[in-house]
Amino acid sequence: MKDTNPLINHKKIPITVILGFLGAGKTTLLNYILTHNQGMNIGVVVNDFGDINIDNELVKSKTDKKLELTSGCICCSLQTLDLQEAIDQFTYPGSNIDYIIIEASGLAEPRDLAMTLKQTIGVRVRLDGIVTVLDAHNLTKNAKDHSAIARDQLLFTDFVVINKVDLASKEQLAEVREMIASFSPKARILESIKGKIDVRLILDQDQYKVRTQQEKPKEDDNHIHHSHLHEQYSTFSWTSQKPLDPMKMQEFINRKIPSNVYRAKGFLNFGTKGHMRKYIFQLVGARPEIVWENWKNITPETKLVFIGRDIDEAKIISELEQCIDKDPEGSLPEGIELQLPQKAEL
């Protein structure tokens, strides 16, 4: 039985955006997510049904505005709806949608799309992560033909999926990684063949709910998923009843979280130096966010969860222990004042 009590009780439906050039493997990745989604009901927004070629085995029925999928998911087309209308298809009262995935066109402007999602999609959804899919075999040509968009897709991404690694040489893979590092050195990178990744690394774990799967995965596909993906996945939690030093914790967040940590989340207790507030911390890829709310009759404590691949748990715990405040009753250094971030609207 899975734990249905999320660490952070979000009331908004998370949105993940999948970017990438035509032919990079966005739809292949989407199909894989829809069949390995831990039982979630996913709403999918695409530019046009005709352009994405969702696996026929996933299609249950089709209307002008929606494509119903056998996995419990629904797909909406932007040919008949604008972005807000498509999102509204999934966020009505009583909706059972757990997650929304937007598959952007191959030439979508990631900067504009990210700003649109953050500013105009309303109070019922939240932008969770941006995933950029790269074709390891043809990246050089795509980047040369569309250099500005290639740059932006890396600058504004949280995760990079290097797809088709089986078709690329070692030299091509090295070139791809060098390009990613030049534009987004802290981006979290996954390599894939035919879009097969560990979905838990890019989708918010708290959204996974206990559901009865309508169909069991094929034996050979399940073997591939288990043997090559799960063995690298790791997660652990850390708690402390002692307040943390806000300056040291900021340094840890900005400089010391390793790149093989794909997600982190939890509560931070800075004691009196943090105005006795509850700080809610989330890391998606290399993008940290901290908001605050009151403890609400809960004993203040720090509780963090880290999700990634082959995480050195002992090293991270050692770094976190260095963040425990040795003078919790004291003041911050002269001239420094802890400014409250945005109040939580989960």
Structure description:
By secondary structure, the chain is of the alpha/beta class. Helices cover 26% and strands 26% of the residues. The chain has ten helices and 14 strands. The protein has helices at residues 26-35, 49-52, 83-88, 110-120, 139-145, 147-155, 170-183, 219-228, 246-256, 313-321, and strands at residues 13-20, 42-46, 59-62, 66-69, 74-77, 99-103, 125-135, 159-163, 188-191, 233-240, 261-269, 278-284, 287-293, 302-309. Strand 12 and strand 13 (287-293) form a beta hairpin. Helix 5 crosses helix 6 (147-155). The chain is globular and about 65 Å long.
How do the strands and helices of this protein lay out in sequence?
Blueprint: E1 13-20, H1 26-35, E2 42-46, H2 49-52, E3 59-62, E4 66-69, E5 74-77, H3 83-88, E6 99-103, H4 110-120, E7 125-135, H5 139-145, H6 147-155, E8 159-163, H7 170-183, E9 188-191, H8 219-228, E10 233-240, H9 246-256, E11 261-269, E12 278-284, E13 287-293, E14 302-309, H10 313-321
Parallel strand pairs: 1-6, 1-7, 2-5, 2-6, 7-8, 8-9
Antiparallel strand pairs: 3-4, 4-5, 10-14, 11-12, 11-14, 12-13
Helix pairs in contact: 5-6
